[in-house]
Design a protein that fits this description.
This protein is 34% helix and 24% strand. The protein contains 7 helices and 9 strands; from the N terminus they run E-E-E-H-E-H-E-H-E-H-E-H-E-H-H-E. The relative contact order is 0.18.
């Protein structure tokens, strides 16, 4: 089934689509045919563990068969032009049906088999939930030493000093956010800088923020 919202964005809906999901797993993809099938399997495992009605929404700008694989695996796929990572989230927000959103990457570096902590934090009132690799587990060589021991700790400390927050990992890409909070942020960044804009706006808007430990996994060789 295909629904069109405008001339360059198309929504593909799989058979057996979830009705009235509480949660949307919202993830952009660009030529991820090697990992997208396993990623969706991880998401389904996480959804089952969390015992939640959920949809998986892939925002796809690929030239390979990512769309076909994701759709056949049971994900909704929003086909968009390649306009940047931040723009992918902006384009997708009107299509996300869940009250709660979990964001991340589909390259199998973030463990979507374990989404319950994000969901529980949002159900308990958090508007923005950061994953923390430093409070969780980082596999050997999953993060460059300069980022792990200097860059991320330093920039996290600086932001905490400025805004009075208590983050331990402001660059983690796996995050939870309520749809209402994401809408209120009025995101403008079109590319990678969206990640910093989101953290800054959560702090400036004095949203209720939480942080949960996650596993950060080394990308498999050849992926």
């Amino acid at each position: 089934m295909l629904t069109e919202r405008d001339s360059d964005i198309k929504l593909f809906v799989p058979e057996g689509d979830c009705a009235e999901p509480e949660l949307t797993i919202l993830v952009p993809a660009l030529n991820e045919s090697l990992t997208i099938g396993e990623f969706i399997a991880w998401c389904k495992e996480g959804i089952a563990k969390a015992n939640v009605k959920a949809e998986i929404l892939i925002v796809d700008s690929s030239t390979d068969d990512t769309l076909e694989i994701a759709l056949s695996a049971g994900a909704r796929v929003l086909k968009t032009p390649r306009r940047g990572l931040g723009r992918a989230y902006i384009d997708a927000l009107p299509f996300a049906r869940g009250k709660y959103l979990i964001l991340g990457d589909c390259d199998l570096t973030y463990d979507f088999r374990e989404i319950s902590p994000f969901l529980e934090a949002m159900r308990n009132g958090a508007e923005f939930v950061m994953g923390s690799r430093f409070r969780g587990h980082i596999e050997d060589r999953a993060m460059p030493p300069l980022h792990r021991y200097f860059g991320t700790p330093l920039t996290t400390w600086i932001l905490n000093r400025i805004y009075g927050t208590e983050f331990t990992d402001i660059h983690c890409g796996m995050r939870g956010i309520t749809k209402e909070a994401f809408t209120r942020m009025k995101m403008a960044s079109q590319s990678w800088e969206y990640a910093s804009e989101m953290v800054l706006k959560a702090a400036k808007l004095r949203m209720k923020i939480d942080e949960v430990p996650i596993n950060f996994i080394k990308i498999a060789k050849g992926v």
